[in-house]
Amino acid sequence: MTTIDVGIPSVRVATDDVSDRPDTPELVDRFGRVARDLRVSITEKCSLRCTYCMPEEGLPAIPRENLLTAAEIARLVGIGVHLLGIEEVRFTGGEPLMRRDLEEIVAGCAAVAPGTPLAVTTNAVGLAHRAAGLAEAGLTRVNISLDTVDRDHFTRLTRRDRLDSVLAGIRAANTAGFSRVKINAVLMPDTLVGAVDLLQWCLDEKVELRFIEEMPLDADHAWARDNMVTAQRLLDVLGERFELTESGREDPSAPAERWLVNGGPATVGVIASVTRSFCSDCDRTRITSEGTVRSCLFSDTETDLRAALRGGASDEELAAVWRGAMWNKWAGHGIDAADFAPPQRSMGAIGG
Ligand SMILES: Nc1nc2c(ncn2[C@@H]2O[C@H](COP(=O)(O)OP(=O)(O)OP(=O)(O)O)[C@@H](O)[C@H]2O)c(=O)[nH]1
Ligand SMILES: C[S@@+](CC[C@H](N)C(=O)[O-])C[C@H]1O[C@@H](n2cnc3c(N)ncnc32)[C@H](O)[C@@H]1O
Ligand code: SF4
Ligand code: SF4
Hints:
Layout: E1 2-4, E2 11-13, E3 27-28, E4 34-35, E5 37-41, H1 70-84, E6 88-92, H2 102-112, E7 118-122, H3 131-137, E8 141-145, H4 151-158, H5 163-175, E9 181-187, H6 189-193, H7 195-205, E10 208-213, H8 231-239, E11 244-249, E12 257-261, E13 267-271, E14 284-287, E15 292-294, E16 303-304, H9 306-310, H10 315-327, H11 347-350
Parallel strand pairs: 5-6, 5-14, 6-7, 7-8, 8-9, 9-10, 10-13
Antiparallel strand pairs: 1-2, 3-4, 11-12, 12-13, 14-15, 15-16
The structure holds guanosine-5'-triphosphate, S-adenosylmethionine (SAM) and iron/sulfur cluster (2 copies).
One iron/sulfur cluster binds near residues 48 and 54.
């Protein structure tokens, strides 16, 4: 067992037991799942301080030399796609736009894995100036966090008065040539109050809105099961104003269930991670900004790839470490278990 510094909490790195793992190239786990969706966190920094995610003062800075470089990210993405069966890559954080070399990261990944969809999840602050360049670099999809279209509420929730920049970013993304733009809104009591207005705004702007149940991944540890707003409460509220018709998931492992709004074609989605968990169909694998594999959002055990990467390991050796980490993935988040404890890292530090 070794210990590495991953910036925020100190996280153990397990020697993964793979003695019972079948000899298959893909990222399989003990529960029969196969990870094909790679999420790469590229920074812990952020331009906002959403209360359900970050502490007011932000996350402790990760030393620059501990962050994966653009070239290292491209190499790992290439290994994921060519040796491990990864079919889609998403950059997240923290806020991906905080990295000035995001365009370089995207272009590097597009070069090593041509044809693989490359997406970003972003708060869109400053995106208006970069959307066209990111599309040119090879980014194919953008998901944007927006919880409210009310400026005061936005400022309270994110602790920053940046609504105008976010709305400009969404509009720029919508005309930059991405295949489509999705909006993510985390369900909080105030979000519920503004949910009808937010959905109407998204219908008018022709972007796809998804509401997300809040998970116990806030840095302030204020989440409580009894206080959270459930998907069902949201559907009741939206149902008073819109006609909603259930239309299912895009694919079996997609987190969002969708409803047609007023007969469609517009939809509203709900990601009910807590009350209608989709862990049994999970197809995710994560690389943190410091180059560790994290098999589940809620797992505190991470496996270090960066040391091997910088120590001269071959692509096949790196792939073997990654496979071992995923074989040991947990069954699910376990939020409903009596002994549940939230992970040490908060959402922004994991890469949501
Ligand atoms: N339980 C769980 N929730 C997740 C996971 N990844 C993302 N989420 C939640 O889903 C929300 C939306 O995630 P996005 O980054 O937009 O990605 P996505 O929904 O997989 O993206 P699409 O491919 O566009 O559907 C996040 O805000 C998280 O709250 C995960 O691995 N497990
Ligand atoms: C951590 S953020 C990183 C990317 C970018 N900064 C953004 O906000 O889109 C990724 C996603 O996680 C979601 N998120 C953050 N904290 C959450 C929580 N406690 N529960 C559920 N989703 C959360 C955000 O709404 C966002 O859609
Ligand atoms: S949800 Fe995204 S924008 Fe909000 S604080 Fe977390 S990382 Fe930043
Ligand atoms: S909580 Fe873990 S197992 Fe469940 S969907 Fe998320 S990453 Fe997958």
